[in-house]
Amino acid sequence: MATLVLQVPDESLVSKVKHACKMLRGVTSVKVQKPAKPRLYDPETGEYLNDKTMKAIEDVRSGKDKGTTYSSFEESEKAMRAL
Questions:
Q1: What are the structural domain ranges in the chain?
Q2: Which of 33, 32, 4, 7 lies closest to 19, judged by CA?
Q3: What span, in angstroms and rounded, lies between the C-alpha atoms of 22 and 11?
Q4: pLDDT tens for each residue of 24-54
Q5: Which residues contact 47 (CB under 8 A, 6 or more apart)?
């Protein structure tokens, strides 16, 4: 059995593409799989970052969170020791 993977740019088209694929001769089944959420992997420990850490990274990447910046190492060290 062979497998064919299609990527559809708009989720609203999925049902139409699925229906069209079912109409093709020789197609035995059509399955819809949502893309997996991206995960960051640490090869040293073999673990993935947890959901809270991934959300923080996504917020900074998307601009929802500006993050924290420090003007010097001493300022950064002082803030970390205060935690």
A1: 1-35, 36-83
A2: 32
A3: 18
A4: 999 988 988 887 777 888 888 888 888 888 8
A5: 41
